[in-house]
């Protein structure tokens, strides 16, 4: 579980995060949504410690980040996996070497054990024939899957994904969403996904935090989004006719059930 | 004020290089890779430039020694002194700033803009140590490259003297043995070792703290070349004053 208590972050004169408090539960896919420039990425990077917050506290399974020394924070980060927006695979390494990297850095496994673990996670993300390929030889979807494999190879407790669907076609995006949700349940981890993809919201949003202008404007589940009266989230989610129609159908179905 | 802040940040980065070191089995491979990339891959250009610079120094010295009372051995002497004291350690270092320094800035800078450095940090890796320490260790072999530059420069001078009929081989050889001061070679190696540390770390600093996208990587490589060259020139002056003055 991740507890966020009153965090704020400013860059110079611009305050990007304003007193954000929320909780992300284990075993659930938690989505952070909001318009471009709303502070989602800064929020995610603050959670994993890439940005230092100006105010507030963050606790990972009850351990407050600000009580830890820098080296202890690095130790804690070994329990975190991160899928970056651009995948952030190491260009000079093959797929297998990328996935094996955390094992090589932090475990004393034998070569055979490392190789088995790499095979296992690559199989888990449905990439069995790409071991010797370099990132430049992969498609966007494959890169994302390698990034997910690298993020879960150390059996993390927390998984962070920054726009995992960006630049992917709708079909591949759904596959990636499903994969993240399956992994969250399978490994029983706390997953946070930063997105502005409404398909993801409707598909895997077990808990959704809507950030607007650096503040939490709404939070709830994907089911609650359909019935909420919150104007901010409604304006954002139902900006397109498609989702307005989806909402109508959902409400009608719910009425007919009752 | 900005410059003081930058110097402070550079100092902190240097300290960070030695904190929380990367596992030795991983680091060993990285160091060997960097020795190959930074030192061995530079030998070709070092030998080429040294050979011709040595030749040019010989020709220019010879053309300026118009008095028949000056011995021809002076050509060999002047070539040796110029090559050992300045051309090999300083001139080659400026060339290396262009080759190795730009490579370091752009490779680390590209990793920064593609979030690969963030990925290292999220994994709990000390990215400064992982990226810069192997380069620093590899560059400690730089004086060996400078030794080769000295040898090739003097050899180039000898070839120019011989084939251009500027000085007989016997006079040239006598000149390069004349009044030899061993400390001059030590001075050159001390300089090249200090330059090596600068070439490994200053361009790395420009790459590591880069902000922006691909365009900024190119800009950072240029800025890094300018500043590293400036620092080398200043440090060269200070070291010369301290060691020979």
Characterization of this structure:
The complex is a heterodimer of chains A (258) and B (245). Chain A has 258 residues and is of the alpha/beta class. Chain A has a single domain (2-221), classed as P-loop containing nucleotide triphosphate hydrolases (Rossmann fold). Helix content of chain A is 43%, strand content 24%. Chain A has helices at residues 40-47, 70-77, 95-106, 111-124, 140-152, 170-187, 198-204, 222-227, 231-237, 241-257, and strands spanning 2-11, 14-24, 29-33, 55-60, 63-64, 80-83, 158-162, 190-195, 207-212, 215-220. In chain A, α3 runs parallel beside α5 and α4 (111-124) packs across α5. Chain A is globular. The model of chain A has no long low-confidence stretch (mean pLDDT 88). In chain B, α2 packs across α5, α3 (73-113) crosses α7 (169-177) and α3 runs parallel beside α8. Chain B has one domain (23-244). Chain B is elongated and about 70 Å long. Chain B is built from nine helices and no strands. Chain B is an all-alpha fold. Chains A and B meet through α2 and α3 of A and α4 of B.
């Amino acid at each position: 579980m991740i507890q966020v208590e009153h965090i704020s972050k400013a860059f110079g004169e611009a305050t990007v995060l304003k007193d954000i408090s929320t909780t992300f539960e284990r075993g659930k896919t938690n989505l952070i949504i909001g318009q471009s420039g709303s502070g989602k990425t800064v929020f995610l990077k603050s959670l994993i410690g890439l940005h230092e917050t100006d105010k507030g506290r963050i606790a990972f399974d009850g351990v407050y980040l600000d009580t830890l020394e820098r080296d202890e924070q690095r130790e804690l980060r070994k329990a975190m996996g991160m899928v970056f927006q651009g995948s952030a695979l190491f260009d000079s390494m093959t797929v297998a070497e990328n996935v094996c990297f955390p094992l090589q850095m932090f475990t004393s496994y034998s070569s055979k054990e490392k190789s088995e673990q790499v095979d296992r996670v690559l199989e888990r993300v449905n990439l069995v024939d790409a071991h010797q390929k370099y990132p430049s030889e992969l498609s966007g979807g494959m890169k994302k899957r390698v990034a997910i494999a690298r993020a879960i190879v150390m059996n993390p407790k927390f998984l962070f994904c920054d726009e995992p669907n960006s630049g992917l076609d709708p079909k591949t995006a759904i596959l990636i969403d499903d994969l993240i949700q399956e992994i969250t349940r399978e490994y029983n981890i706390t997953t946070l996904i930063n997105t502005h993809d409404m398909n993801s919201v409707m598909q895997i949003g077990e808990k959704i935090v809507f950030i607007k202008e650096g503040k939490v404007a709404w939070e709830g589940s994907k089911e609650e989004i359909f019935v909420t009266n919150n104007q901010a989230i409604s304006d954002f989610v139902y900006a397109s006719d498609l989702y307005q129609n989806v909402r109508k159908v959902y409400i009608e179905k719910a009425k007919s059930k009752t | 004020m900005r410059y003081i802040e930058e110097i402070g940040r550079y100092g902190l980065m240097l300290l960070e290089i030695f904190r929380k070191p990367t596992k030795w089995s991983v680091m060993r491979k990285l160091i060997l890779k960097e020795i190959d990339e930074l030192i061995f891959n530079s030998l070709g250009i070092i030998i080429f430039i040294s050979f011709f610079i040595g030749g040019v120094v010989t020709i220019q010295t010879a053309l300026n020694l118009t008095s028949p009372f000056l011995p021809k051995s002076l050509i060999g002497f002047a070539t040796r002194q110029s090559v050992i004291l300045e051309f090999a350690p300083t001139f080659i270092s400026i060339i290396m700033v262009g080759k190795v320094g730009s490579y370091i800035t752009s490779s680390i800078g590209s990793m920064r803009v593609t979030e690969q450095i963030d990925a290292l940090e999220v994994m709990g890796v000390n990215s400064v140590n992982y990226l810069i320490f192997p380069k620093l260790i590899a560059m400690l072999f730089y004086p060996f490259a400078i030794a080769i530059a000295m040898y090739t420069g003097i050899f180039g001078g000898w070839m120019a003297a011989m084939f251009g009929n500027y000085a007989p081989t016997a006079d040239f050889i006598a000149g390069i043995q004349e009044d030899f001061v061993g400390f001059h070679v030590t001075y050159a190696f001390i300089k090249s070792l200090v330059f090596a540390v600068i070439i490994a770390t200053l361009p790395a600093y420009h790459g590591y703290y880069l902000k922006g996208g691909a365009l900024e990587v190119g800009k950072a490589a240029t800025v890094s070349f300018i500043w590293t060259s400036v620092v080398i020139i200043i440090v060269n002056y200070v070291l010369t004053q301290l060691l020979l003055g």
